[in-house]
Specification:
Elements (H helix, E strand, L loop, with lengths): L2 E4 L3 E7 L2 E2 L3 E3 L1 H9 L5 E8 L4 H9 L2 E9 L5 E7 L6 E7 L19 E4 L4 H10 L6 E5 L2 H6 L1 H8 L4 E5 H8 L4 H10 L4 E5 L5 E5 L2 E5 L13 H16 L4 H18 L6 H5 L2 H15 L8
Helix pairs in contact: 1-8, 3-5, 6-7, 8-9, 9-11
Bound molecules: adenosine monophosphate.
Amino acid sequence: MSLIVVGSMAFDAIETPFGKSDKIIGGAGTYIAWCASNFTPVKQISVVGGDFPQSELDALAARGVDLEAVEIKKDEKTFFWSGRYHMDMNTRDTLDTQLNVLADFKPVVPESYQGSEFLMLGNLAPAVQRSVIEQLKVRPKLIVMDTMNFWMEIALDDLLATIKLVDVLMVNDSEARQLTGEYSLVKAAAKIRTMGPKYVIIKKGEHGALLFYNESIFVAPALPLEEVFDPTGAGDTFAGGFIAHLAKTNDISFANMKRAIIMGSAMASFCVEKFGTQRLVELTKTDIAERLHQFVQLSTFDIDIEK
Ligand code: AMP
Protein backbone atom coordinates (compact mmCIF):
# COMPACT_ATOMS: atom_id res chain seq x y z
CA MET A 1 0.00 0.00 0.00
CA SER A 2 1.34 3.45 -0.72
CA LEU A 3 2.39 5.82 2.00
CA ILE A 4 2.85 9.58 1.82
CA VAL A 5 5.11 11.14 4.45
CA VAL A 6 5.12 14.88 5.13
CA GLY A 7 7.61 16.43 7.53
CA SER A 8 10.61 18.62 8.10
CA MET A 9 14.03 17.72 6.71
CA ALA A 10 16.56 19.57 8.75
CA PHE A 11 19.90 20.26 10.30
CA ASP A 12 19.95 19.66 14.06
CA ALA A 13 22.48 20.50 16.77
CA ILE A 14 21.98 18.40 19.88
CA GLU A 15 23.35 18.56 23.40
CA THR A 16 22.86 15.78 25.92
CA PRO A 17 24.42 15.46 29.39
CA PHE A 18 26.82 12.98 27.76
CA GLY A 19 27.82 14.67 24.52
CA LYS A 20 27.23 17.27 21.87
CA SER A 21 26.74 16.92 18.12
CA ASP A 22 27.88 19.22 15.34
CA LYS A 23 25.24 20.25 12.84
CA ILE A 24 23.84 16.89 11.74
CA ILE A 25 21.04 15.71 9.49
CA GLY A 26 17.67 15.58 11.24
CA GLY A 27 14.06 16.52 10.74
CA ALA A 28 10.83 14.69 11.44
CA GLY A 29 10.33 13.72 7.79
CA THR A 30 13.88 12.40 7.54
CA TYR A 31 13.52 10.12 10.57
CA ILE A 32 10.11 8.88 9.42
CA ALA A 33 11.42 8.11 5.92
CA TRP A 34 14.52 6.25 7.14
CA CYS A 35 12.34 4.17 9.44
CA ALA A 36 9.29 3.54 7.23
CA SER A 37 11.36 2.60 4.17
CA ASN A 38 12.36 -0.61 5.98
CA PHE A 39 8.80 -1.80 5.43
CA THR A 40 7.17 -0.03 2.50
CA PRO A 41 7.96 2.48 -0.26
CA VAL A 42 7.59 6.11 0.83
CA LYS A 43 6.41 9.15 -1.11
CA GLN A 44 8.09 12.06 0.64
CA ILE A 45 6.86 15.69 0.82
CA SER A 46 9.26 18.27 2.24
CA VAL A 47 11.54 21.19 1.45
CA VAL A 48 15.27 21.74 1.89
CA GLY A 49 17.73 24.51 1.09
CA GLY A 50 20.71 24.42 -1.28
CA ASP A 51 22.90 23.56 1.73
CA PHE A 52 21.25 20.14 2.26
CA PRO A 53 23.62 17.38 1.10
CA GLN A 54 22.66 15.71 -2.16
CA SER A 55 24.27 12.52 -0.78
CA GLU A 56 21.54 12.33 1.90
CA LEU A 57 18.81 12.67 -0.71
CA ASP A 58 20.51 10.02 -2.87
CA ALA A 59 20.74 7.66 0.11
CA LEU A 60 17.01 8.04 0.81
CA ALA A 61 16.16 7.54 -2.88
CA ALA A 62 18.25 4.35 -2.90
CA ARG A 63 16.01 3.00 -0.12
CA GLY A 64 12.83 3.52 -2.08
CA VAL A 65 11.92 7.00 -0.88
CA ASP A 66 10.30 8.91 -3.76
CA LEU A 67 11.58 12.49 -3.57
CA GLU A 68 9.48 14.01 -6.37
CA ALA A 69 7.78 16.33 -3.86
CA VAL A 70 10.91 17.31 -1.94
CA GLU A 71 11.50 20.85 -3.08
CA ILE A 72 15.10 22.12 -3.15
CA LYS A 73 15.30 25.90 -2.75
CA LYS A 74 18.83 26.44 -4.00
CA ASP A 75 19.32 29.97 -2.66
CA GLU A 76 17.85 29.37 0.78
CA LYS A 77 18.84 27.59 3.97
CA THR A 78 17.48 24.33 5.34
CA PHE A 79 15.35 24.36 8.53
CA PHE A 80 17.57 24.33 11.63
CA TRP A 81 16.69 23.12 15.12
CA SER A 82 18.79 22.89 18.23
CA GLY A 83 17.90 21.27 21.55
CA ARG A 84 19.39 20.38 24.91
CA TYR A 85 18.30 17.32 26.90
CA HIS A 86 17.98 17.27 30.66
CA MET A 87 19.59 14.62 32.82
CA ASP A 88 16.57 12.27 32.50
CA MET A 89 16.84 12.40 28.65
CA ASN A 90 13.04 12.48 28.54
CA THR A 91 12.71 16.24 28.67
CA ARG A 92 14.49 18.84 26.58
CA ASP A 93 14.62 22.54 25.89
CA THR A 94 14.54 23.91 22.38
CA LEU A 95 17.50 26.29 22.11
CA ASP A 96 16.88 27.52 18.58
CA THR A 97 14.35 27.09 15.76
CA GLN A 98 15.24 28.70 12.42
CA LEU A 99 12.38 27.99 10.02
CA ASN A 100 14.33 29.17 6.91
CA VAL A 101 12.81 27.27 3.92
CA LEU A 102 9.93 26.08 6.10
CA ALA A 103 8.75 29.67 6.70
CA ASP A 104 6.83 29.87 3.41
CA PHE A 105 6.63 26.21 2.42
CA LYS A 106 3.64 25.48 0.18
CA PRO A 107 3.77 21.80 -0.70
CA VAL A 108 2.38 20.68 -4.03
CA VAL A 109 1.12 17.09 -4.10
CA PRO A 110 2.18 15.58 -7.44
CA GLU A 111 -0.22 13.54 -9.56
CA SER A 112 1.87 10.42 -8.95
CA TYR A 113 1.15 10.65 -5.18
CA GLN A 114 -2.65 10.73 -5.66
CA GLY A 115 -4.53 7.65 -4.54
CA SER A 116 -2.17 6.81 -1.67
CA GLU A 117 -3.97 4.93 1.09
CA PHE A 118 -1.86 6.07 4.04
CA LEU A 119 -0.79 9.58 5.02
CA MET A 120 1.70 10.38 7.79
CA LEU A 121 1.68 14.05 8.74
CA GLY A 122 5.00 14.44 10.50
CA ASN A 123 5.83 17.48 12.56
CA LEU A 124 5.39 20.63 10.48
CA ALA A 125 3.25 23.77 10.51
CA PRO A 126 -0.35 22.53 10.93
CA ALA A 127 -1.58 24.66 8.01
CA VAL A 128 0.97 22.93 5.77
CA GLN A 129 -0.13 19.52 7.04
CA ARG A 130 -3.75 20.48 6.29
CA SER A 131 -2.96 21.71 2.80
CA VAL A 132 -1.67 18.22 1.94
CA ILE A 133 -4.93 16.63 3.13
CA GLU A 134 -6.90 19.15 1.10
CA GLN A 135 -4.95 18.46 -2.10
CA LEU A 136 -5.65 14.72 -2.03
CA LYS A 137 -8.50 13.90 -4.41
CA VAL A 138 -9.42 10.72 -2.52
CA ARG A 139 -9.19 10.70 1.26
CA PRO A 140 -6.55 8.20 2.41
CA LYS A 141 -7.72 5.17 4.37
CA LEU A 142 -5.79 6.43 7.40
CA ILE A 143 -4.36 9.84 8.29
CA VAL A 144 -1.93 9.95 11.22
CA MET A 145 -0.68 13.27 12.60
CA ASP A 146 2.23 14.16 14.84
CA THR A 147 2.82 17.64 16.22
CA MET A 148 4.66 19.45 19.01
CA ASN A 149 4.39 22.16 21.67
CA PHE A 150 5.94 24.77 19.33
CA TRP A 151 2.77 24.76 17.15
CA MET A 152 0.47 24.83 20.21
CA GLU A 153 2.19 28.04 21.20
CA ILE A 154 2.25 29.85 17.85
CA ALA A 155 -0.56 28.32 15.74
CA LEU A 156 -3.22 26.83 18.02
CA ASP A 157 -6.24 27.60 15.79
CA ASP A 158 -4.56 26.06 12.76
CA LEU A 159 -3.55 23.10 14.84
CA LEU A 160 -7.12 22.47 16.04
CA ALA A 161 -8.44 22.78 12.48
CA THR A 162 -5.97 20.12 11.30
CA ILE A 163 -6.48 17.80 14.26
CA LYS A 164 -10.20 17.75 13.35
CA LEU A 165 -9.39 16.08 10.01
CA VAL A 166 -7.18 13.20 11.13
CA ASP A 167 -7.83 9.65 12.33
CA VAL A 168 -4.88 9.26 14.71
CA LEU A 169 -3.17 12.00 16.72
CA MET A 170 0.17 11.24 18.33
CA VAL A 171 1.70 13.54 20.89
CA ASN A 172 3.97 13.10 23.87
CA ASP A 173 2.68 13.23 27.44
CA SER A 174 3.55 16.88 28.10
CA GLU A 175 2.04 17.94 24.76
CA ALA A 176 -1.18 16.02 25.56
CA ARG A 177 -1.38 17.90 28.86
CA GLN A 178 -0.60 21.25 27.22
CA LEU A 179 -3.20 20.73 24.48
CA THR A 180 -6.02 19.74 26.84
CA GLY A 181 -5.20 21.29 30.21
CA GLU A 182 -5.72 17.84 31.77
CA TYR A 183 -3.05 16.24 33.96
CA SER A 184 -4.55 12.74 33.67
CA LEU A 185 -3.50 11.23 30.35
CA VAL A 186 -6.75 9.23 30.26
CA LYS A 187 -8.75 12.46 30.50
CA ALA A 188 -6.41 14.17 28.03
CA ALA A 189 -6.88 11.37 25.47
CA ALA A 190 -10.67 11.51 25.92
CA LYS A 191 -10.63 15.26 25.33
CA ILE A 192 -8.47 14.90 22.21
CA ARG A 193 -10.95 12.36 20.87
CA THR A 194 -13.68 15.00 21.09
CA MET A 195 -11.49 17.21 18.85
CA GLY A 196 -11.73 14.75 15.92
CA PRO A 197 -9.31 11.80 15.99
CA LYS A 198 -10.79 8.37 16.75
CA TYR A 199 -7.43 7.13 17.99
CA VAL A 200 -4.96 8.90 20.27
CA ILE A 201 -1.40 7.80 20.90
CA ILE A 202 0.48 9.32 23.82
CA LYS A 203 4.25 8.77 23.74
CA LYS A 204 6.01 8.65 27.09
CA GLY A 205 9.65 8.40 26.07
CA GLU A 206 11.47 5.73 28.03
CA HIS A 207 8.13 4.72 29.60
CA GLY A 208 6.60 3.53 26.34
CA ALA A 209 3.37 4.61 24.65
CA LEU A 210 -0.39 4.43 25.16
CA LEU A 211 -3.00 3.82 22.46
CA PHE A 212 -6.57 4.97 23.17
CA TYR A 213 -9.61 3.86 21.12
CA ASN A 214 -13.20 4.00 22.41
CA GLU A 215 -13.06 2.52 25.90
CA SER A 216 -9.90 0.51 25.18
CA ILE A 217 -6.34 1.34 26.18
CA PHE A 218 -3.28 -0.55 24.96
CA VAL A 219 0.14 -0.04 26.53
CA ALA A 220 3.38 -0.60 24.63
CA PRO A 221 6.60 -0.73 26.65
CA ALA A 222 9.79 0.98 25.65
CA LEU A 223 12.86 -1.24 25.66
CA PRO A 224 14.85 -0.63 28.85
CA LEU A 225 18.26 0.31 27.41
CA GLU A 226 21.51 0.58 29.32
CA GLU A 227 22.44 3.70 27.41
CA VAL A 228 20.35 6.29 25.63
CA PHE A 229 22.69 8.30 23.49
CA ASP A 230 20.35 10.77 21.76
CA PRO A 231 16.52 10.69 21.99
CA THR A 232 16.09 13.12 19.06
CA GLY A 233 13.85 11.69 16.40
CA ALA A 234 12.59 8.85 18.58
CA GLY A 235 9.01 10.15 18.28
CA ASP A 236 9.30 10.44 14.50
CA THR A 237 10.88 7.02 14.20
CA PHE A 238 8.03 5.66 16.32
CA ALA A 239 5.58 7.30 13.91
CA GLY A 240 7.41 5.80 10.92
CA GLY A 241 7.31 2.29 12.37
CA PHE A 242 3.65 2.65 13.34
CA ILE A 243 2.29 3.81 10.00
CA ALA A 244 4.61 1.68 7.87
CA HIS A 245 3.46 -1.47 9.65
CA LEU A 246 -0.18 -0.52 8.99
CA ALA A 247 0.59 0.33 5.36
CA LYS A 248 2.57 -2.86 4.77
CA THR A 249 -0.19 -5.06 6.21
CA ASN A 250 -3.02 -2.88 4.84
CA ASP A 251 -5.00 -3.50 8.01
CA ILE A 252 -6.23 -0.65 10.22
CA SER A 253 -8.05 -2.74 12.82
CA PHE A 254 -7.43 -1.96 16.50
CA ALA A 255 -5.72 -5.37 16.86
CA ASN A 256 -3.24 -4.43 14.13
CA MET A 257 -2.72 -0.96 15.60
CA LYS A 258 -1.48 -2.69 18.75
CA ARG A 259 1.15 -4.50 16.67
CA ALA A 260 1.96 -1.23 14.92
CA ILE A 261 2.68 0.61 18.16
CA ILE A 262 4.99 -2.21 19.22
CA MET A 263 6.73 -1.84 15.85
CA GLY A 264 6.99 1.91 16.48
CA SER A 265 8.48 1.32 19.93
CA ALA A 266 10.96 -1.24 18.60
CA MET A 267 12.15 1.11 15.85
CA ALA A 268 12.40 4.06 18.28
CA SER A 269 14.59 1.95 20.55
CA PHE A 270 17.20 1.80 17.77
CA CYS A 271 17.01 5.51 17.04
CA VAL A 272 18.21 6.55 20.51
CA GLU A 273 21.31 4.33 20.40
CA LYS A 274 23.39 6.77 18.34
CA PHE A 275 23.36 10.45 17.43
CA GLY A 276 20.94 11.55 14.69
CA THR A 277 19.83 9.05 12.04
CA GLN A 278 23.08 7.08 12.25
CA ARG A 279 21.61 3.94 13.82
CA LEU A 280 18.60 3.88 11.49
CA VAL A 281 20.82 4.12 8.43
CA GLU A 282 22.78 0.98 9.31
CA LEU A 283 19.84 -1.20 10.50
CA THR A 284 19.32 -4.66 9.02
CA LYS A 285 16.20 -6.81 8.80
CA THR A 286 17.80 -9.22 11.28
CA ASP A 287 18.32 -6.39 13.81
CA ILE A 288 14.64 -5.50 13.53
CA ALA A 289 13.45 -9.11 13.87
CA GLU A 290 15.64 -9.67 16.94
CA ARG A 291 14.41 -6.50 18.59
CA LEU A 292 10.77 -7.40 17.97
CA HIS A 293 11.46 -10.74 19.61
CA GLN A 294 12.85 -8.88 22.65
CA PHE A 295 9.64 -6.85 22.79
CA VAL A 296 7.51 -10.00 22.81
CA GLN A 297 9.66 -11.36 25.68
CA LEU A 298 9.35 -8.07 27.58
CA SER A 299 5.63 -8.20 28.09
CA THR A 300 4.47 -11.79 27.69
CA PHE A 301 3.35 -13.53 30.88
CA ASP A 302 0.94 -16.19 32.12
CA ILE A 303 -1.39 -15.77 35.04
CA ASP A 304 -4.19 -17.94 36.34
CA ILE A 305 -6.77 -15.38 37.37
CA GLU A 306 -9.03 -17.98 39.05
CA LYS A 307 -6.45 -18.87 41.75
P1 AMP B 1 11.34 14.22 17.99
O1 AMP B 1 12.59 14.05 18.81
O2 AMP B 1 10.82 12.93 17.45
O3 AMP B 1 10.30 15.04 18.68
O4 AMP B 1 11.74 15.06 16.69
C1 AMP B 1 12.91 15.80 16.57
C2 AMP B 1 13.01 16.37 15.15
O5 AMP B 1 11.98 17.33 14.95
C3 AMP B 1 14.33 17.08 14.95
O6 AMP B 1 15.12 16.35 14.02
C4 AMP B 1 13.96 18.47 14.43
O7 AMP B 1 14.63 18.83 13.25
C5 AMP B 1 12.45 18.39 14.17
N1 AMP B 1 11.77 19.61 14.61
C6 AMP B 1 11.99 20.32 15.76
N2 AMP B 1 11.18 21.39 15.82
C7 AMP B 1 10.42 21.36 14.69
C8 AMP B 1 9.37 22.21 14.17
N3 AMP B 1 8.96 23.29 14.82
N4 AMP B 1 8.83 21.87 12.97
C9 AMP B 1 9.23 20.77 12.32
N5 AMP B 1 10.21 19.94 12.75
C10 AMP B 1 10.80 20.23 13.92
